Amino acid sequence: MAEAVKFLENYIPAPEKKYPGDLGLKRMQKLVELLGNPQLKYKTIHVGGTSGKGSTATMIASILGQKYKTGLHTSPHLERINERISIFSRAPHNRENEISDVEFIGLLNEIKTTIWKMEKSELGPPSYFEIVTAMAFLYFEKRKTDFAVIEVGLGGRFDATNVIKPIVSVITNIGLDHTEILGETVEEIAQDKAGIIKRGIKVVVGTDQPSVKKIILQKSLKENAKVFLMNRDFKIDTRKISSDGSVFHYIGKNNYYNLRINLLGRHQIDNAAVAIKVTEAVGGLTESDIRSGLTKAKIAGRLEIISQKPLIILDGAHNPDKMKALVGAIQEIWPERKVIVVLAIKNDKNATEMIDILKPLAQKFILTGYRVVMDQGEIVSYDTDDLAALMGQKRKVIIINDPLKAYDEAVNKTAGKDLILATGSLYLLGLIQKKINS
């Protein structure tokens, strides 16, 4: 696999070409056309939004997988690139249904000729992300999936995934993230994300923001798409939130009582409701399918408990909205625990607001950093001294630049009832997960 990843890294776009807009979408359209448009050989569900789209996509795939063979394409990955491409078929989400190393290498070798052909075209070579997305489409065709759930990479309108023709598009919510690319306001970002709404399809919306709903409804009306809104067409009644998961009632086309999810936090109930509405829109699923799919759904790095003694939680919250959901969940589920936060934040994120949200929760901060290579190139965290400057004078702060040593410090120095939280970035979590699993 190392050689396969190294090959893909040759297709990391140059900084000035990272977000090529319409050109990138045209390039992706040409790439899948040369591969025979595999993304049109099965039914697709397109999942976009600022927060919650990975969890929502996973729950949709898990429910559909109780009856249908269902593909799932998400990004980024934590440890292994294989995580991006999975098949659900009456099995919980685990490595057994991720694409194997052999399958991944075989697929990549199969499309190399097409990649090289693209290099010589006026559109230029496909990017790392475009190649992996095309591989996912091709893999789902080869595995004869009935459905594929496709998570948007970034934005919506010009995203490489927007070559699909979904039967349902999903917009979970809209927040201020990637503002340098998508726009400075939630309304501008909503316009971009509404680009996944296609003619005549169904649209499920998880947000209650009036200005965002207005934009989505206008786009849906223009495309003659049928819209289902949270708290208008479906809603939830939360019954229980605990460290074991949540119990809630769903009120919609059908009513389901005392549903259970093992994903933690109040925000995951909202995501589950959106997933249920999507599967209702698809049709053909029983209440048993929905219950089973929800309880089996797992997703790494989202309020993930990796140890009970000491209590260690990994969460990849990397924008203010996600951080609010995380802090709210910990305060609700573990109100008596002292929290030690291991923190690293990508250097283009709103660190000031994220830290302000964390301050009331954290007894102590251990600040760290990272430098990793992913599909968009080298990803670098904020300098730890810069993060420390945002903390204020009265905050207990330790700086350990090596993320693995920072994690060890938290584990080794914690008291029995403390809670260790590693957060701020999925890339930090990936490094910690690799350490744990090795």
Automatic annotation (TrEMBL):
Protein origin, superkingdom: Bacteria
Residue ranges annotated for the Mur ligase central domain, each copy included: 135-278
Entry cofactors: Mg(2+)
Keywords: ATP-binding, Ligase, Magnesium, Metal-binding, Nucleotide-binding
Domain Mur ligase C-terminal: residue ranges: 301-425
EC code(s) of this entry: 6.3.2.17
Reactions accelerated catalytically: (6S)-5,6,7,8-tetrahydrofolyl-(gamma-L-Glu)(n) + L-glutamate + ATP = (6S)-5,6,7,8-tetrahydrofolyl-(gamma-L-Glu)(n+1) + ADP + phosphate + H(+)
PANTHER family: DIHYDROFOLATE SYNTHETASE-RELATED, FOLYLPOLYGLUTAMATE SYNTHASE-RELATED
This protein's name: tetrahydrofolate synthase
